[in-house]
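Database export, one record per block. Field names are fixed; values are copied verbatim from the stored entry.
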Amino acid sequence: MEMNVSQLLRDPIGSTRDYRIDEVADVNGDGTSHKIQGECNLLRTQRSILVKCALDTEVELTCSRCLGRFRHPLKINFEEEFLPTIDATSGMPLPPPDDAGAFTIDENHILDLNEAVRQYSLMAIPIKALCHEDCAGLCQICGKNLNEGSCDCAAPDIDPRWAKLTKLL
């Protein structure tokens, strides 16, 4: 997801470019490639290029209840500023950004979205991923996936201190 923005850096402030993204990339850093589709708008500002993207992809996750693998759709929306490292008209190096984690445009005027997409996709992945909302999970005794059917384990003994609470059910 690289774009040559040398012409946009030479254009007047307020100039825009729209890009359609339809690529395959590693969005969650696990080495597997996922298809990414969406739209990105690039806006020339006084000192940088402001990138607004709305992307869709799908990642493979592990359910936190049943430990099964499943595909989860992911919407990645972000707005980030990309700072040039070389002046597009003079070719002279620009001072480095104050923020060490700022996104930059390389010396060949290539704007690389891969790291921004990776970071925002990691933030979009749910903390507690579930294969479906009513996932039954695993049996606490034998470890059988209860989504595939019940197991033959005996019900665990109830602690007598909590026994009165069962009457509320």
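Remark 1: Strands lie at 2-4, 16-25, 34-44, 49-62, 69-84, 103-105, 110-112.
Remark 2: Residues 137-169 form one domain.
End of record.
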